[in-house]
Structure formats: structure tokens, C-alpha cells
Fold each of these.
Amino acid sequence: MALLEVKNLGISFGGLRAVNSFEISIEKEELYGLIGPNGAGKTTVFNLLTGVYQPDAGKIILDGTDITGRKTTEINRAGIARTFQNIRLFKQMSVLDNVKVGLHNKHPYSTIEGILRLPGYRKVEREMDEQAMELLKVFDLEKYAQTTASNLPYGQQRRLEIARAMATEPKLLLLDEPAAGMNPNETGELMDMIRFVREKFHVTVLLIEHDMKLVSGICERLTVLNFGEVLCQGATSDVLNDPQVITAYLGE
Amino acid sequence: MSFISYLINGLSLGSVYAIIALGYTMVYGIAKMLNFAHGDVIMIGAYVAFIGMSQAGVSPVIAVAAAIIVCTLLGIVIERVAYKPLRNASSSLAVLITAIGVSYLLQNTALLVFGANTQTFPSVVSWGGITLADGAMNISGVTIVTIVVCLVIMAVLITFVQKSKPGQAMRAVSEDKGAAQLMGINVNATIALTFAIGSALAAVAGVLLCSAYPSLTPYTGAMPGIKAFVAAVFGGIGSIPGAFIGGLLLGVIEILGRAYTMSQLADALVFAVLIIVLLVKPTGLLGKKIQEKV
Amino acid sequence: MSEMQKKMSRNTKSNLITYGMVAAAFLIMQSLISMDRISYLVEGLMVPVCVYVIMAVSLNLVVGVLGELSLGHAGFMCVGAFTSAFFSKCMSDVITVAPLRFFLALLIGIASAAVFGLLIGIPVLRLKGDYLAIVTLAFGEIIKNLVNVLFIGKDSDGFHFSTEGAMSLNLKDDGMVILSGPQGITGTPRDSSFFVGFILIMVALFIVTNLINSRDGRAIMSIRDNRIAAESVGINVTKYKLMAFTISAAMAGAAGVLYSHNLSTLIATTNNFGYNQSIMILVFVVLGGIGNIRGSVIAAVVLTLLPEMLRGLSNYRMLIYAIVLIVMMLFNWAPKAIEWRERHFSFLKKKKEAVR
């Protein structure tokens, strides 16, 4: 059974049909790309999948559970984590603390334990520190652990967002233009990182990207979105050679 | 009979709230900030008119004109010095706290300049008003003038915003600052104009308020200012007709509340209205819903 | 690992400096008082100073850590002051051991303020920014107004309530009026002291600093920094907003208890429990540095003592506060000012990061 099954998903904003009968089916541990011209509704799909917007039609099924209409927080707990097109870090907090916020739900202790510094607090905090540092190592950020997030260089900020999302131990990771603003060198590193994360954490990845080198380099299958509707779906090489897709990208 | 006269008094007070609320709602619509100091501009306007009439002995018309000019300049200066530098600040709390600071600055400057004593404001309207139902009911001149002035201001302002070039620029800026700039609209000038108009209206409101309720102190503007903000939220912040309707309703609620419940609780009642509106319909009666961009 | 330990010790060290500073200040003042080296005027200010320090620290939890502006903080202080004074006056003959009575009054004041915080927080925290500020202001004013119209008396039949006046309570001869509308509560036992105030400050600091450096504190700060991102990693935004707001209200309640048990007559006015007081506390928080707990303590102490010591300045006090507020905000938040600071004072940056 597919990990993510989306059926007939749709939403309108003030008469404009932003996404219409969107369907997608992603297998476990697949690396899947969502592409399309600017304004095609890609980020809106992400916002629908993560409960930022409530769909007015359709169903979202994650690993056999219907998560349609749930709130963002609950959807994350059900197993979807994401990054944002315009980076959203906890700017005034340290890099380490950003990841530790991601670890929040998986490593609980009570408020009283926290305020009184009881043994439970010390033990869980130590676990969190270790796990956070391990994640930072994966993304080559361990030397920045105590840096304030807003002081990180741009490329590292993008990576930190992925690390924070991975801290929630998701089944499905949504990456919204992870390579935006990166130079070819950084993009190459990022591709390796995404592959490595998938192997190590057995996570399924759905990503939005404009960088065709990245898309053709790591995505196994693609869905092309145009004017809020699915234009074409299938194996990466087939989709990229589809004449319809070429027209959509290059214009009439 | 008393109910009708309460109602008319309520409409009159509501007209003052509506005029003040216009200043809030226009500024909020364009600069997306709550100008906490707006209420205190009212007080400054009232003091200018008061000094003009009581000390300089000029006619009410000139005194009101002086108040309008002073407040307009004050509004422009406040925007330029205190708010504009914070327009792109990373925290929205920054400009709000600054506005609170400006409010305190105006109050305490007035305290030093004019003293803490309550001044008796001479009404700018000398007409005694009309008597109805064989003397059973008297509607004062101030009451009638206030309502009429409010209606005129509303009509002029709606026409201005809909029809004139600067008015259209104001609408464009409130929709999308960036796009307006690209279209060649001078955003800074438009925001300054909005503050100027709002502050000029505040002067008018101050004179009318003090003509009806003649005691003037440095704190006179604070409470009506906050209540007018409630009115603006009630009607739907950013909406000019909303400010009008919200102001009138709030004035009537307050006067009826004062008359039929405990007068000490009238303020609490006004605030309760705000809380209920925000919980039931946060966009107010005529406001638009804004979707957060993710 | 070494990185983390460094950070741990840095936080602990910073907290220890704050505690040490407060303790040292207390010991110095206390010994000066016992040696009679300090005027009655200043001695009388010690409890109010403690009240304002607790208020500033608790408001900083909402403004600096949660990132929301509350303009009704004095309202929670009002709730704590009146409920506890009410209790103490009722019980002044029943419980004669003053420390025990004060301790119970403290619990009651804290609990009632916390309940109010929770009840107000549930609807209010759905709102954002300006709206939240104005609604908290509204609630603060409503609380103050309600206290001013309420009359409560007690006789052998139990409690009597009225909103008309003390006469309409219809008390028997053995009865007494406890809360008398605008006249407030008179005859509260004066159980507060500088020492009690000092202990309460230490407890407040302990709770706030430890909360900030815990899992819950990180969740609260993540909401401040980016609500949408916080939700996306599974943070329950409503829960943590309420937590910060309620803890803050409870602390303001404690400050209220301290305040009311320092006065023989307790009345609710704009200056002690109204909007003006809330703004005053906000000035302390802004001046001490938003989010900087130690700064709040220092600002509250200095701004309470200074104007009283320099009596000549008292007319200009509020004016100066207003200017300080504006200048501080412009200097700290205006993008141009930040740019200018970074260009000319970048060497200070390291130092700034170490503070929390």
C-alpha cells in the first residue's frame, strides 16, 4: 500500500480554484518530485497536506490513516514534516534549540520536572542533546550548534530546516524548494544529503523544486502541476520528455 | 420620551466615536498599525481650540481651524519621527510599544504645558437646539451639529477615497504596498496623507467631544480614543462605513448602558462589546478576512 | 558534548549571577535598614520595589518569551490583591498566626489570578498582536471597574453581596463590610515584609529562568519566533500560549498579594491596577530589554527608586519614561538603527549573545 494516497484534493480562494482534483500516490521510501511553473499551486498542495489550509474537497490518507481536515500540529504527529519556501526558522534561538523544538513531542517530561530540574529533566535533556547533535552532524551543522539561527549562512539555514523537520521522526518529509538560492556546489551537497537521509531514516520524500538538475538527479517519479491541476505523472525521465510538460514550461 | 432622548444622545456620542474611529481605521488599513496615540491627538486639538477661544479670544471657527492645522502637522510629525523608521521592523510589537510611548509623551507634555487642572471647555455651538413635544424633550445644538458634521465627513471621505487620485492611491497601498510602489504610487506620501487626514479628523472630534462634555484634562482623549478603536474593530477595521456604523452603535450602547444599568459599568460594557465581537466575528461587521501567507 | 555542557554552564552561570545580584541587594539594604542608615521613605519603598520586580519579570514572560503584548497585566495583580486581602480580613480573627495566614492568602491570590489568566487566555490568545493587546487592556479595565462596584459583607448568616452600596448589604449588628466598592478593603493585616518580597522575587526568578531553559520554554519561544513553523513540528500552540499567560498571571497575582498586605487601605484606581500601571510595567520590561529577565529586575528597581530619590524630577518622570520608551524602541528595532549599530558596534555583539 502506498504511504501517501491523495484523492481528488481541491481548494478555492475567493472564486479562484487554486488546486483542483489533485491526486498523488507515493510509495514508502520513494523520492518524489512535484514540479510546475510558478503559481501552479505547488506550495498550496503542501499547505493542504500539512493542514495549513483546509481542503474543500478530497481525501488525504497517510499510511492507512485518513488525516483530511486535521490541524497542522496533529498532522505532524501523524508523520508529515515539512520545510518552507521562505525559510521559517526559530530565529532568535540557537541552532541546537531549533532541532530540540523538533524533538519536543518524542521526548516528554512534565513542566514541574522542568522547573524543579528533577532527574527526569536531566535525563531527557541529555537524550535530546545527543540526538540533536547527531542530526546536526548528518547535516554538517554541528559546529554551529550554539549559533543563533538567524546568524547562519543562507545554505545552512535551509539545511537546518530539514534537520528540524527530521527531528520529528516523520514518515513523509515535504521539502519546498530546498535548493532555492544555492550555488551548484551546495545543490550537489544537498542532493547527497537528501539521499543519505532517506537511506538512514527510511523516510519518504516529496519535494518541490525548480532546479531541473536536482529533480532529474534524485527524483524517481514526478508529478507536474499546471494551473492547479495535474498535467502529467510518472517516472522522471518519461515526464521530462513529455511534449505537454515541455510546452507548459516553455510557454505556448 | 427619555428613551428617545437617550438614543439621540447616544447617536451624538457615537458620531464623535465614528469620527475618531475613521482615523484609526484608515491608519490601520494602510500602515497596518494600531496608532495608540490617536486619542491623545484629540486632546491636543481640544486644548488648541480651548486656548484659542478662552485665552486668545478668537471666534470658534478660527479656533477650530487652528486645532485642525496643529493636529494635522502633529500627525505628520509623529508618523515621520516615531512610526516610519519602524515600518519594516522584524517585530510588530515594536511599533505598537512606540505608539504607546507617543501617547504617554503627548499626555505628559500636555500635563506640563497646560497643567493638571480640569478646564471648562466653551461650546463651539452657541445655538440652543430644538425643543420637541411641548418642551418635554430638548435636543441640544451641539448634539445636532455633531451628528450633521459626522454625516458630512463620512460622505466627503467616501467620495474622496472612491473618486480622487490620492484616495485611490490610499486604497492601492492598503491592498498591497509593494505592488502600489511598482505602479508608481508614492507610498511614503500616501501614508503621511492618511495620518494627516486622520489627525485633522481627530481635531474635529476633540472639539465636538469637549463641546458636549466640557471638562478638559490631559487625559481627556485617552478613553474616547480606546473606545473609538473598539468602534473601528466593531465595524470592521479598515472599512470606512464600518467605522461609521461601529461608532454609532457603540455610542448608543454606552449611553443606554449608562442610563439603564450602573453608570460605573458603562466602560466595562463597551469593552465587553469588543471582546464579544472579536470572539464571534473577529473581522467586525463589515471587515474582510485576510488569509495569512505561508 | 562539550558544546552542550558549555551552554548549560553558561545558562546556569547567568542565572546564578541574577540570583546573587538580588540576594546581595537584599542583604545590603536589609543591613542598612537594621543599622538605621536609610530614610523611612526609602525603607517604605522596599516592598513596592519587590512588587514591581515580580510584575516586570512576569510580564517579560509574556512579552519577551511568548512575544505577545499584554496591556492588562495590572488586572491580574488586582485580582491577587483583592482576593487575598479579602481572605486575610475575613480570617484575621480566625487564623492568628500571621505567617500561616499570609501563606494561605498568597496561595489564594496566586490561584485566583491564575484562574483569571486561564479564563481570559482561552478566548484572548486566539487573537494576535494589536488585537490581543487591546483585549487584554479591556479585560484589565473590566476587572478594575467590577471591583469598584462590588460590596461584600459578612455577618452570622454568611456573606452578603450588593452592587448598590454598603447599606443595602443589610448586615446584622455583628456583621462587617469587607469590600466596600470604591472605598475598597480597609484593615488588611500588614503581613508583607521586605523579606517576604525578596523570597517571592527569588521564587519568580527561579520559575521563569528554569522554564525558559526547559522543553516547555523552548516550545513557547518557538511560537514567538515563528508560529507556523512551530505548528509544523507538532507544537501545540494554544497549550503553550496559555501556559505562559497563566504562569505570568499567577505571578502577577503573587505581586498583588504582596502589594495588598503592605497597605491598610486597598482601593482600585487607574494608577495602581489600571492601564497606567500596566504601561508602567511595560516600560520596565522594555527598558530592561525585551526577553532579558535580569534586565527587567534592574530596570524595575532603578525606575522605582530613582524618581522617589530625585523628588524634583517627579513632574518630568512620566515624560522621561515616554521618551525613553520611544527612543529604546527606535534604537533597538528600526532596521536603519540596527544597520548603523552593526556597522559601528559590531565588536559588542559577542557580549550581547552571552546574555539571557
Amino acid sequence: MSKVMSHRSLERLGRGLTGSCVAISFALVVTLIVMVTYHGLTTFIVDGISPVSFFCGDVWNPHETGDNGVPLLGALPMIVGSFAVTLLSCVFALPFAIGSAICIVEIIPRIGRTVIQPVIEVFVGIPSVVFGLIGLMIVVPWTAGWAGGTGYGIFSAAIVLAVMILPTITSLSVDAIAAVPQSYRLGSYGLGCMRWQTIWHVVLRSALPGLLTATILGMARAFGEALAVQMVIGNATAIPDSLFTPASTLTSILTMGMGNEAMGTIPNDALWSLALILMGMSLVFIAIVHLVGRKGANVHA
Amino acid sequence: MMNTSTGDERIATHHVSVYYQGNKEALSDVSLTFHAGEISALIGPSGCGKSTFLRCLDLMNREITGCRVDGLIMYHDQDINQHADLFTTRQRIGMVFQQPNPFGMSIYGNIALALRRHGVPKAKIKGIVEESLRSAALWDEVKDKLHSHARALSGGQQQRLCIARTLALDPDVILMDEPCSALDPIATHAIEDTMQSLAARGISVIVVTHNMQQALRVADTTAFFYLGEMIESGKTEQIFSNPHDARLRDYVEGRFG
Amino acid sequence: MRETSITVHAMRARRVDRIATSVLIAIAASLCLLLGIMIGYVLVMGAGKMFDPSFLFGKPQQFKAGGGIGPELFNSFYLLVITLIISVPLALGAAIFLVEYAPDNVIVHVAKMAIEVLASLPSIVVGLFGFLFFVLMMGWGFSIISGALALTMFNVPILVRVIQQALESVPLDQRDAGLALGMTRWETTLFILLPAAMPAIITGIILSAGRVFGEAAALIYTAGQSAPVLDFTCFDLTNPSCPWNIFRPAETLAVHIWKINSEGVVPVLTAISDGTAAVLLVCILLFNLVARFIGRTLSRRLSA
């Protein structure tokens, strides 16, 4: 009978031990979301900054007050900056990423799957500061050379981010394309289609949800990247008049500012509001990935 | 089985039905009795519920979320479907699977693992390993390489190792789910011999098979399953030579399978 | 007439095919070239420093030329070890629960989703939360423990996913065999599934270690941006110069690269940051190589 008990209590122990690991992780996430939301909303609820002026104002100068006596907290330059670098980096990265993925799976699978793909997976893990440093050493001087100015700005940041998310998107796209059933390809070849026709009409079409997911995950990574961007964008808190003048993103201002503002002050609360926007956007990215995933599952079913 | 009375009753089901998620009935109202020292075969086309039934006897359906088993499963005068301790019951009722599935460790380790977990003293384990390998007719082939990797054995040897693994826990019922379907004829023959020697020791052997020849060769009694129902059961010769039910007759004559 | 048009069509298709193929190969080649040049650039620029012991193990200098990255190198590894000590058991437990025990209900779905959300949060947000929660509220200050916990939040979702996949790829009949022998799920997992999944788990842990090793954004406000001088003869765990003290600030290699580039007060800045980047990169590449090697060796031994 004691043996029986020991088995049962052993199972209870295992369940409890592992369950509490899930509970701890869950509690941490909830705490994070609650705390960031709480501090992020303080700006609007306690400090009385109007959300409209926060999202639409284009002057970010937390230590000065405007004509109405309210600190100048317009986050539009950073919001614009974040979206601009994200979209632009995607535009730069996508042709290379998807082209390479097609090439790896469809054209040179032997070298592609055994050599190039593992190497690209290694690149996914390269620290973002290294990309920032390379941006600082190569991209910024190069941009300054042909576009004039300092070289810091959205363009340089987008290039750096593009290189950074290239391995991510490529590697996920390879998986998406490789997941297309071989029978689809054989069917297309059986109809007398050439390789490119097969790729274009059959493979890419059925890999589309996967490619979309890859792109969005890449965008999410670019949107959330802080240090690599902060190093090359110039960090000027005004809406830039060109891609080649210093600008800023949500992440870059957060990185720079948090160390300088004391907790509980309005400028600090405003930074938390930026963090809240950042968190909200990453939730949106996840939601899109889920939606695409469900659509994709429907298409294949 | 029902209406036969050789040996004493070992395990019996009364009105057992199985429902999968969404209340889908996979098995409906099966009542069967299995006796000590008998080999019983469960036959029927695939998807007929014979494996589901077998998994009931070992309470393995409890591991499937959303699966519900109704009815009584009497084992040593106790309804194990309701009141049993899962872990002790599964030690007493052994199970051998379709694909040989030795653990990724040594031959010795495969048998010793469960013994150690159930608190068998170290000094006894060695003897039990040898004894169960002998019972599974594997000892002579592996006695010199007990510590080599189990997956280096042939398919038939692996399956006999799996039988030895369950025998080590001294069960009085052994369930086999198409144990020979992945094996060649010689290995199959060896497993069938093992089944007969187990039955001779008083163990009740219940084997699911899609191979009617196998049922004819080894089974004392046979039950025919079709579309989640147990259609007919009885002495094996009678089932095959003089089937009552038209569906069983068609099946025996090979009209479907 | 019709036949010629088909021939023309086929010829055009063939030409398009040839062009597309060469364009795709060119794209892939330029990608490889780009990545190759990048790695090569960092390694070549840093090569001079990388083999210089006074750089690798020396003290950093604030306003003078020269100076090494000794404390940063140590901090990076120490922080990694502390992070793994916290995050591996946590992720292992969570993954086992989700694969083996999790009932199919709302709470479990929400918990799964929460872990997924954590995986996609920007690391700066995790870092800021760490700053707020561990540094300020818990009062641990800029310290190794704050940094390790922030990195744990960053690392756990990655690890949970890897371990879950590893456990799920163990054939189902192994679990059934264990359960049918009267073992508990806990024992089956511990003694059968985990050993079988071990190669994939170890590979995953080492790869995640590479990610942790190079992470900076989550650390600048948790582990801090200063590297106190370390005294390796000191074993007083409350002393800030004791290397093993987990309540001291600890700047890592990745943070160092960011800091000297954004502060710009260190003379010969480029030489130092290039050297640091090269060291960081070599470490990351080593993690990858080791992961692959160990994964392959272990799975070969298991299937022998």
C-alpha cells in the first residue's frame, strides 16, 4: 500500500513541480504586461497628457512646457521613425531573403540545404550590437559619402536592420517553401511547366502564408530592435525631412532616455508610454501571425 | 471467453463502451471473459475497435484526453475501471505493442528500469532480468551482451525483449497488440512459441491480430469485432469452422479485411 | 500557325526560366557574399586585438588609450551561467508540463499564449521591465541577478519551444511503453523521454546560450553599464569586487560595444570595439559549432 502511495504522490509531485514552472513564467508575463501598461497609462491618466497630442504632436521636449503649460510630449517623430525603418528595412530585405530561400530549396538544394541554410541559421544568432557596430563603421560613412550630411538617419538604420533581419526571414522562408508538398511540384512538372513557372505559380502560392509569417516575424524583430538602430539613426527627436537626416525611433529614445529621467517624473512616464506602444505593436504582430497561420491552415485543409 | 469454462476467470469486461472526444462511440457494449492459461485472439478488420478494447484492459485509454470508458472491467474480483490504482494494475497487466519499442538503453537497462522504479532491491534485479529473458526465450541469444544497446538487436529479438520487460514485473495477464505485424515469419514463429509457454505458466494472453492464421495457430478462444461491436466469440475452431454471424463468415472467407 | 505559336511560347518560357534561375542564383550568392564579408570584416578588424592577452584579460580604461576587456569577458560568461542555472530548470519544467500534463483547458491555453507573447516582446521592453521590477522594486540594483532574471525572461520562451519540440519528437510508443510498465508520467518523462530527447535539448540550450551571450538591450538597465574591478582572490560574496558576487553590476561584452560607441570617451575607440566585437563573434560561432558537434555526437551515441 505504501508503494501505491509513493507512485501517486510522485505523480503529484511531478505535476506540481512542472506546473509551478508554467505558473512562474505566466506570472512574470502578466506582471510585465500589467506594469508596463500601468506606467504607460500614467502619462494620460495621472499626468493629464491628452492621448491625441501625444500621438499626433511632433515636438518631443519633455523638460519644456508648451503654451498651454503642458510638457511637450509629441511622440509622432518616434512612431513615424519606427514604422519607417521597419517598412524600409523590409523592402530592402525581402527580395534578397525570398530569392535566396527559393534558390536554396528549389535550385541548388544540395549545397543550399546542407551548407547555406545552416550558415544562415548561425547568422540569426549574431548579436544585434555587432550589426550596429558594422553600421557605424561601414554604412554610416558610406551613406554620408554619396548622400551628403552625417550619414546618420532612417536610411542607414533601415540598411542595418535589413541585414539583421535577412537571416531571420530567409531561414523561415526556407522552411515555408520546403514545407510545400513535393507532389505539388511533380503535378506542375507533369503538366509540362518549367521550373520557374512551377515556382511562381505553384510553390510560392502555396507557401504564401508561411512567407507572410516569416516577413512579419522579421518586421517584429526590426520594430523592436533597440541598440543597432540607436547607434546609427542619429537620435534627433523631430520628424526628419529626408531619409538621410538624423531621426529617432521608439526604441532609440527609450534606450537613451530611461537612464536620464528619474522614476515618477512626467518625462519618465512618457518614456513608459513609448514602451507601451512598443509592447502593443508586438502584440499586434503576434495577432497577425496567428491570423495568417489560421488562414494558411484553412488553405491547406 | 463467454460460454467457455476452462481454467479460472482472470479478467472480464461487462458492457464496456468507449467514447472518444466529442462523444464519438468507438466501442459499444462489449462483454468478454478471459481465463487463466488461455490464449485469446481478438480479430476483425482495421478500425473495428479491437485495439481500443485491448487498451481498455490496461487502462491505457486514460492517457487519451477526452476518452471515456463505461462499464465494468473485473480483475481479481475488483472493478479496475473505477477503483484501481493505475500504477499497480499496469504492473500486473503487461502490454506489448505493435512496433517493437525498446528504450534507448542497454538490454539490461530496458528490463531493470521499471524494476528499479518500483523499488525492487538491487540484489534481486539481476536474477529477475535473467529469468524474464529466459521466459521470453531470449536469454541464450543475449546473455553475453546484456550491456550492449537494445536497438542493435533484430526486430524479433527487440519484440521478445519487450515481452521480457513486461514479464519482469510478474504479470498474470499479457496484452499484445498485433505483436508480429512488423516481423518476419521466423521471428513471428518465435513470438508464438513464447505466447504458448506463457499460457502454459497460467498467464492469460490476449492478442490482437489481423492474421487469421495466427489466431488459428495459437488461440484457444477467439472474438470477432466489427464496427465497434463484439459480434461473436467462442472456441477458435468453432469460430473459424462454423461461424454463426454472416459478417464473421464473410471475414473468415476473406471477403473483406 | 498554331504549332509555331506553341513553339514560340515554349521558347519564351525557357528563356524566362533561364533568366529567373540566374537571377535567383545571383541573389543567393550576393546574400552569402554579404554575410561572409560582414563576418570577415569584423574578424579581420579585430584580429590584432583578439590574440593580445593584455586586451583579453586586461582592465578597461576610461579616458586613457589601451585597456582591455577582461572583466567584460568574465561577466559575459558568469552572467550566462547564472542565467542558464535559472532558465534551464524553469523552461524544462514548463515544457514538461505543457507536453505531459497540461489539461486541455482555457488556463493552459492562456499560459501557452503568454509564453508566446514573451517570445516576441522586444528585448528592450523586457530590459525596462527588469529595471522596474528587479532593479527598483526588488531593490537588487544594477546587478548580475537582475540581469540574469531579465535574460531568463528573454531565454525561457526560446527554451520552452525547443524542449517541447524535442519531447514531442520522441516516438509516442516510448511513452506508452513506460506507462504500460506501471511507471508514472513523471518517471516516464525523467527516465525515458528526457534521455531520448537530450541531444536536441542540449543543442537547443547551447544555441540559446549564444543568443543570451550576445544580448545587450535587456541588460543595459538591469546588469548595468559598469564593470567594477574584479579581484579574483576575493571570495567575500558581499564585496563588490568579488567576481562571484551576484549583487554587483556587470557590464558584458555586448553592452561594452554599445556603450563605448555611444559614449565615445575612450581613445582608440574603434580598435577596442572592433576587438570586442571580434571576441563576441568568435564566442557566438563557437557556441554554434559546439552545439552542432554535441548534438551530433549525442544522437549518434543514443542510436548506436
